[in-house]
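User: Fold this, then the next.

Assistant: Folding the first:
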Amino acid sequence: MRQRYTRSDPRGMFPRVTGRPALPYNRLAAFWRPLFDLTDSEVAPLRLRMIRPVAAWLADPASAAWPWFSRIGLPGLRRQVVRHAGLDRYDCHDPRDLPEELRTPGWTTLAETVDRFAELDHRARTLVVVQLTQLSYHPLALKLAGAVRPDGDPERDRYVYEVARVHAGCPGHAARALALFEDLATSSGGGPVALAACFQGIGHAIRDANDLARARRFEERGHDLAKPPDDWHSCLVGSRFHRAVALLRLKEGDTGAARRALAVAARLHDDLAVSPPTDADEMIVRENRRYLLELELAAETRGVPGPRTRSLCRELLRLDPYCVHARLLAGDGFAAAGDHAEAALWYSRAGELGTGAGATGWFRAAQCHDLLGDRAGAVNAMGRCLELDATAVEARDYLTG
């Protein structure tokens, strides 16, 4: 199976849909509601349910905590959702441009705080940068932040760390992100931010730069920094670091070493899960387990996928059932295990959530239907792919044929 289709326009073209119900009655918007107005939804993916705590901290600075969420928004995601849901009035490049009558109290707070960005302390700036990135306003977050460098001050370095993560999430910004992570790993006094910069550096050196030598340097620095965890957050950062080491071992082709690193990450995760201090930390526990599941699936599919692969897929779906990417990963796991009917089901359910990732889901579902001899199912899935991304070459060719 091909994992991705090619585009006639590399930027993609996500058609605008008209005639859809207003926000409270819109099927697609229910799954993406926090992106529209910062209102929570029980059927939103875990990544988006993390938007609400950050909004609450912005509204009440006295209660604000440092955000340790790992998953942030994807550039352009909000615009894709708005188009596919047919809610054009919510389409804006800056939260301050949303019409007044569409703003919730949380949205108004965000807009006002953006206006005061230069007056904020580092913790408040960090919250603004995180919130904007959760909403996929990456360019605005970087424009507000400007050029930053760590200087050893714990609060400033924590802020620089989040700015580096925004750079890492933007196409073409990998070099800047990795340079910041390197600075943080060596100049942050050996605290959790330094170790966090190491695990980020490993992941982005592999995914964005395909630079294993650089990833190994981050690993070596991380081992120098790693200490026996003595509180909840040090367990969290330690688990993330060893998870990144497992990813590096997988990239190197050493599945056994990857499993050993994953076992260390899992033990630290178990310590996290015993007593998360707050509801937001409970979300972080679920998020961390989700990342571990993704790596366990990757390790499983390097061998002979079987019952354990299916079990991991089902746990992933229980953990984050309304996430388009979780559904895609489950589909991949079932497909690797040879269960193309179950894979087609979850690829299709990913497609039902819209966005470019949903278009990819329909494309993979179509191939599963073809393998199963279901020509009508394949035609339907290729058509649904093209409805979400009008530049999908293989979907267009399939339907033409």
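Now the next one, as you asked:
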Amino acid sequence: MQASGRRGALLCAICCALGAGCAGPAERGAVPVRPGAGLDGGLPDGALDLAVPDADVDAGVDVGPPPSRAVWLVSRAQPHADGLRAQLQPPHAPTGDDPAALLPEAALLVAWAGPADDPRLSRAWATERPVGVLYDLGDRLAGRDDAAERRALAVADVSGLIAALSAARYPLLWRERPLVLVDGPWDAAMNDAFAAARARADDLGAALSWGAIVDPTASWIADPAQADGPPDDLDPIVPRCAVADAAARSRARQWSDGHDAGDGRWLPCLAPPTNPRLDTPRAPADAPDLDSLRRRLVLARRVGAPVVIVDGAGAWRDDRQLDPVSGPSTGAPVSLTTAWVYRGYGTARVDAVRRFLLTPAGRAPGPLADPPVLLDLVRSVGVIVERLESTADGLALRLQDVTERGRYEVLLDDRPFVVTPGLALTYRRTDPAVAVDLIFEDGARLRDLLPDAGEDVVRRGLDPFVGRRVEEATLVYAGGRARLDARIVAPRIASPAESGAPAR
């Protein structure tokens, strides 16, 4: 698997045969609490807003390696004038550059809906970054009732796409082949047309990696007896980025795992909060706050996949754009905003992507939650949080758990670091039902690797994990109490000389 590209001689030969020209390979250059949904299943049941400032990496810390994951950015070409921000009263305006230049650290997935998008795809393929294709075959086939017409359209599309690939300086590779992600309903009509498109690619000798974008709420995911769904050999599998339903995404991931060849093919995808009311009046709209995006970024990276996909540059229509925006705060017109307040967020959305997915490791943070992030990540139905706050010596949490089997997780510290010899996690707690957990880059959790013995004074030596990157420290309540009133005192990640004994 590879997230940057080289053009293969085979593709060159194919494109020559199609009359598209044979440019030689280029040398590769440097490419450059708040409430929330549960983690793949938990749902919020309250509206707690703890406006505590986020913790930044300390200025001047030693900078270590960046994360090993790649980030792919979905690039769309929706005009700002046709999008939700332009319809606000007063309207919001874009302040950034061409969406195709956004987040140059990431590879691009160019949304391509047939020949009309060829110029934009060609421009992207001429740049100094890896570029893949997100092919919305379902949209291309919409409204076409004749099966032969659908097959002919898909065959023509893929023929032109393979010809255009001759211009790709750095095609985005997956398993050493240029990647095409295909979106659509994956019903019988689409599968028939897609099979014709794949056969055409095989006839041309084009070695492509075909992946699938799937709707996590599709009925065939919940009901394995249904015949619909993408072919089993497609790889990777990606959920639609704008569908944030945690339970549905969890079912879709389980479905993908059940069809997996054994080495993992599920790639998480996320988008900022969306508002579809320009196309579907009276549809529900997400709260347009930055915490929702931050939460989705944290939960996506917890999957531990080699790639996280983020939508999207130029995605103005339903307000999922990452592009910088300026404008006064407004809740008008209510028919569009549902009375949510929309703010000109500047560069905050793209900054959040960099922070949570691309930040290099620094030194071990020492005192945790100093100041605390306190971003609500996971809350099961039936968990009612009455108090969560930073105190002089740590953190205080009071909640009710109707089922006594609930779960609640809060991000405390998001400063990534690589474990060095002698580091330990230390703290004192007043109830063993709460704990501080560390999440590694691959999604592994410290509490799973070193089981919790329930002690009041906790010291977890991290020497077994030397060299591994830690991405977050999280406060966890994992059930067992009808009511909980607990404190975490002096949480730290430091060497023995720096930490001393946990406070009593």
